[in-house]
Amino acid sequence: MTMGLRELKKRQTRQAISDTATRLFLERGFEAVTVAEIAAAARVAKATVAGYFPRKEDLALDCHETFTADLARAVVARPEGESALAALRREFLAAVERREPGAGFSGPGFARMVAGSPALASRLRELHDLREDALARALAADTSAAPGDLTPRVVAAVLAAAHRTLFRHVLDLVAAGRSDQEIAAAATRSAHQVAGLLEASLADYAVREARS
Fold first, then answer.
1. Are 147 and 134 in contact (CB under 8 A)?
2. Cα 176 to Cα 136: distance, rounded to the nearest angstrom
3. Keyword Transcription regulation, does the record have it (predicted)?
4. Would the pTM count as exceeding 0.70?
5. Rounded distance, CA 26 to CA 111, Å?
6. Cβ atoms of residues 95 and 187 within 8 Å
7. Of 90, 94, 103, 98, which Cα lies nearest the Cα of 168?
């Protein structure tokens, strides 16, 4: 389906605002830059910035919608015979291979900015929590869990915590100035290590059954 000109224009405007904000944040620090300054630099109204990014933090963490949905999406899309744990390990390794922001990849300056900003660190924790909530809902639906069954919530908490740890591991390596190749190798080893720790409990949970 061809994207309409209106939708294309909206996406281009959103990207231009995000790129401008990121440049200013990296130059001066997240807290030092105002939304009004971003709007002026992007040549749009302040209300336009707020329309695309209701929260200032999301100007920096602009992949938040994809980020909060990716674990749940991986579980929903897993093939027959694959467990939730195996699906999430596979998807994380693929994200590492693609050097995706959702796995923690960014530039060193950006990673240090996130680590050094209380506001961005707080927002990132919120996004991780939303990610866990979405995963819990997906697991509950996929396993036909009974109302009040805490199993999907507990499993989601464990799996999301594992991914949160891996994400922070990658972010720390980025901030330290390690190369993408070094980071990918370390993240791959860590992903297998973390999954290995969880296999005894979760290898047989939410294995996708063959569809009739």
1. no
2. 33
3. yes
4. yes
5. 10
6. no
7. 103
**Other C-beta atoms within 10 Å of 196: how many?**
11
The CATH fold of domain 5-59: Arc Repressor Mutant, subunit A (1.10.10)
Best CATH choice for the domain 64-202 from the list 1.25.40, 2.40.50, 1.10.357, 3.40.1360: 1.10.357
For residues 38 and 21, give the distance between their C-alpha atoms in angstroms, rounded to a whole number: 6
Cβ neighbors of 63 (< 8 A, separation 6 or more) are 101, 102
Q: What is the pLDDT of residues 136-145, one digit of tens each?
A: 999 999 999 9
Mean pLDDT of 92-108: 96
Question: Quick one: CA dihedral 100, 104, 109, 110, positive or negative?
Answer: positive
Please report the pLDDT score of residue 212 as a whole number.
Answer: 57
Give the DSSP per-residue string, 101-153: GGGT---HHHHHHHHH-HHHHHHHHHHHHHHHHHHHHHHHHHTTPPTT--HHH
Going from N- to C-terminal start, the domains of the chain cover 5-59, 64-202
DSSP 13-27: HHHHHHHHHHHHHHH
Looking up tokens 């200013």 gives 24
- Find, among 4, 155, 142, 175, the residue nearest to 76 by Cα: 142
What is the C-alpha separation between 184 and 192, in angstroms, rounded? 12
